[in-house]
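Two proteins were folded this term; both appear here.
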Amino acid sequence: MDIKDKSVLLTGGSAGIGRELARQLKAKGATVVITGRNRDRLDFMRAEGFEAIEADLSNAKGVDALVAAWGNRAIDILINNAGQLVDHDFRKGPPDSDAADACIYANLNAPIRLASALIPALAKRPEAAIVNVTSGLAIAPSTRTPVYCATKAGLRSYSLTLREQLKGTAIRVIEVLPPVVDTQMNADNAMSKMPAPECAAQIVDAIESGSDEANIGQVKLLRAVYSISPALARRIMLRF
């Protein structure tokens, strides 16, 4: 896909991977509209020339408000990048069920709801894409973040089946699986982290090449291990 002159809706575009992705897509000539929850970060991106829509995607009301704000505009690329991480470890004490619900909605329900709302508009374009940002943890989960892992595995399954449903249409469904990336979400994670600009660059490459699936950084190794022995991959990741 040629990104130049494409209209892009990028969720979670005010920080981390999303911010770098917005910048790189804009540099290639796309018109990028971002979403986020933090007004200061959104204003920072507006100062860089981006249109920014304030939207809390952890509930249906927020998603519906975003769809309403988008209106009848043409769209070529939907990037479901926004995500939340929630601490859900019974070894530390009772988890916060409300926080888990918000994480599930933001990471899984919101992308499904956005795709459902915007596929009719995407289908009108000569070429279009839905890009779902999942995680290497969608392949094998980590003990520390079971809710996050479950949502990313769910979005991976949704991406696989949606791709099959949309065969023969102009819409390409692309799943990208980042490793641990150096973002605010992973500030407390001691593991080696990929720089956000590098991760964003590989996502852009996946969009341009039309790949169905892009395993990024160390996820390539995890994917290789999983292809040989799923049980071994799970044992390795469950240590974290």
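Next, the second protein.
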Amino acid sequence: MLSNIRIVLVATTHPGNIGAAARAMKNMGLSDLALVTPKIFPSDEASARASGADDILESARVFDDLDAAVADCHRVIGASARLRTIAWPQLTPRESAELAMGDAGRHKTAIVFGREHAGLTNEELERCHFLLHIPCNPDFSSLNVAAAVQVITYELFQATRAGAPPNTAKEQEPLATGEQMESFHKHLVQTLFDVGFLHERKSSPSLTRKLRRIFNRALLEQSEIHMLRGILTAVQHRLGTRDVPRGS
């Protein structure tokens, strides 16, 4: 079950944190590590901090952006010490583990950790279905990224031992992957431009962010994505426009 859980580190500055995260993963039985634009990797310091988890480092994949790192994942959980202006569905480490393990045999989950100094950007958080917040001392609430990885991997390991309750909400159809969701979001934004709901100079980024939140929260199935994109395409055909995504 843990083989379907991916730990993603975004723009890690200190290679020692990559090694410590790899060690935490191996301690708790995880093996899928993805790195998004790490400042230094591979590194002797990462290997030293891994303390025997060299196989995790050797199999780690490096990506140019977060979209590529989670493209094949059905659920994305972003860790953040800061609560955001636009509320995201929020989970504790234990809730995140129970959710991820509830159907880990069928769906792949990515748990994303941001930069040491700034965490995840709002744009990166837009790619996430849930926000993972680790409760800490409010006067000193920022955890080291490797320590945060240790907390969540421990909860994942405990969930396997306890036998997490099955997630039956989406048993019939596979969930949409990150790549499918991103393609849908771009198609949606393009269509909203086409019908005049969005305008080049007047559209607020917070509006498209809220739209992302609505559809991410729904945990759409692949068949539902196909249906929604079919509706968008029909609208574009009626307008005589082409599906050339402008992004969001």
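The domain at 178-239 is CATH 1.10.8.590 (Helicase, Ruva Protein; domain 3). The mean pLDDT is 87. These notes refer to the second protein only.
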